Amino acid sequence: MHVYLDDLRACPKGLVAARTAEECILLLQECEVGILSLDFDLGWGQPDAMDVVRFMIAERRYPHEIYLHTSSLSGKNQMYQLLYRNKPDNVRLVNGPMLYETLQKLSNTVQE
After folding, report:
1. Residue 90: which residues within 8 A CB-CB, separation 6 or more?
2. Residue limits of the Cyclic-phosphate processing Receiver domain (predicted)?
């Protein structure tokens, strides 16, 4: 399973939408997550993606790849720094969104 955490943007084909930090954490707890793409701000007064990052670190539950597609520069920097210092060596961390080629590959793997 591949997860796209974002409260507003449309979820790309081939990924599962999580609209809140709580939904994302539940998916990480219950499923094997291959790719996780994170938005930082998830609505006024709502938990943000740092809660997801803290969960991954505390529980040692990491996906294989993590992308930071948020438009919040400070949020992206906070998540990247904390993940970079704590993630296992085998986890790929990308300080930006998925490339078009990656999205196309994921889209093509979805059963029509």
Report:
1. 64
2. 1-84
Rounded CA-CA distance 39/6 in Å is 5
What count of Cα atoms within 13 Å lies in the side-chain half-sphere of residue 38?
A: 35
Looking up tokens 């059963």 gives: 111
Amino acid letter, 28: L
* pLDDT tens per residue across span 41-81: 999 999 999 999 999 999 999 999 999 999 999 999 999 99
Cβ-based burial of 21 (10 A; exposed 0-12, middle 13-18, buried ≥19): buried
Residue boundaries of the structural domains of the chain: 2-90
Structural contact between residues 110 and 1, judged by C-beta atoms closer than 8 angstroms: no
Rounded Cα–Cα distance for residues 109 and 14 (Å): 7
User: Rounded to whole angstroms, how far apart are CA atoms 111 and 106?
Assistant: 11
The full 3-state SS of 98-112, as one line of letters, equals CCHHHHHHHHHCCCC
